[in-house]
Amino acid sequence: MMKEFIAAIDQGTTSTRFLVFDQGGNEIAKDQLEHRQIMPRPGWVEHDPLEILERTKAVVVGALKKSDLSLRQLRGLGVTNQRETTVVWNPKTGQPWYNAIVWQDTRTDRIVADLEQDGRGQVIRRKTGLPPATYFSAAKIQWILDNVDGVRRAAERGEAIFGTIDTWLIWNLTGGCDGGAHITDVTNASRTMLLDLRALDWDSELLDMFTIPRSMLPAIRPSSDHTNYGITRGPASIGDGIPVCGDLGDQQAAMVGQACFTPGTAKNTYGTGNFMLLNTGSEIVPSKSGLLTTLCFKMGNRPPVYALEGSIAVTGSAVQWLRDQLGIIQSAGEIETLATSVEDNGGVFFVPAFSGLFAPYWRSDARGVIVGLSRYNTRGHLARATLEAICYQTKDVLDAMTADSGVHLELLKVDGGATINNTLMQMQADILGVEVIRPVVMETTGLGAAYAAGLATGFWKELDDLGRQWQADKSWTPQWSADRRESGHASWKKAVARTLDWIDIR
After folding, report:
1. Could you tell me whether strands 195-196 and 201-202 are parallel, antiparallel, or unpaired per DSSP bridges?
2. For residue 294, which phi and psi values (nearest 5 degrees)?
3. Bridge partner list, 87
4. What is the pTM of this model?
5. Tens of pLDDT along 187-220?
6. Do residues 160 and 235 touch, judged by C-beta distance below 8 A?
7. DSSP H/E element including 448
8. How far apart are CA 206 and CA 128, in angstroms?
9. Contact in structure between 203 and 132 (CB atoms under 8 Å)
10. What is the DSSP string of 13-38?
């Protein structure tokens, strides 16, 4: 009998991965390719959707070739994706009307500011659990409709439809122009500013607010769907015959991959940005501290599970900035050596508010600052301040999470590329005062998408089975005194204050 596996497409902000897992949750095949970051103006960040599709097809071929597997061995396919990134395309031709507008993009700041001016922001918060922000998809869709010639008229004719990247890929993989499935799941839908969290449906009042035709939007499905979203087929696909039956936004996929299935469990992902989620179970917890209330996952016909989330725009991308724009390091891995060349940050604090500040501040008028410089400081101090910035931003989020939920974490599960930096992980434990634990399987985002697809196909039976597969690789316990932790965080807060009111949005 032919051995079967579950596969996942993990389409991220900077690259696309294809992963294959066995029944024990072990990664047995992977390929990865980067795609371009298009920045036509300050604050604008775009991707080419067709390039992402081609990269997706290429990594599938690459992973299967490396592992000597065939498509026929794949029992099901899950998709996970950078959330909020917005694509509008013509379903009759398959061509995008415009580049994908990335979640980091801030061109919609005036649209968002107007929402707060006239009180519509409170309606958005109440229905969606989100603050009005450039981060989310709705204002990006409105911008395309209002600024790209012909798109609004095309939408009225049924020739312009919207999706986040999961929707774009699934539509192409399941037939594209020839009846491709135009769907998304509840987690991605919850990041648009258009979903009513309680009804789990697009909200008419919000659609009117952003002047978006309902006909543009995908159908909303569970994150794990035993009826399948569709079967891979057609010239734009990766090959014929694989059920596509799992779909999760990347941070929710990491929650599933980290086995955070019970209320009170949390994880933090270290990628281009940082994203901490806390499972709140069936309870929708409105945030009073600057967090997001969001969907965590919905498995088949089971009730939805909700979460609190703290989203940080710039963490790993600050390390990339040191490498690519400043040339202080030649590779991302060098930052650990450089940061450990000094004993402390030398009084330097770096707040990388390149796209404004996300949780818990939500200030699109902020911009990055480096403060506390003297002639004493070296590039080692800046490297250390960059790593500490990742940790202090996470501290701000955890404090807000504790205030909203009353949950005092004793340990934090971590994942993402930056967790290979042991110095960073020790700093994180020190600054939080919480034990930090890294799992054996590092590709938790892809694993979570695979779990969703595997549950849908019966490859795995129950969530409890998946929870038993989770294993710790390494942990870090806090070494700092409480006084040092409080003093460092107080200085960080002073640095954050220096970033505010830099951009005049009005």
Report:
1. antiparallel
2. -145, 170
3. 163
4. 0.88
5. 999 999 999 999 999 999 999 999 999 999 999 9
6. no
7. helix 444-457
8. 9
9. no
10. SSEEEEEEE-TTS-EEEEEEEE---B
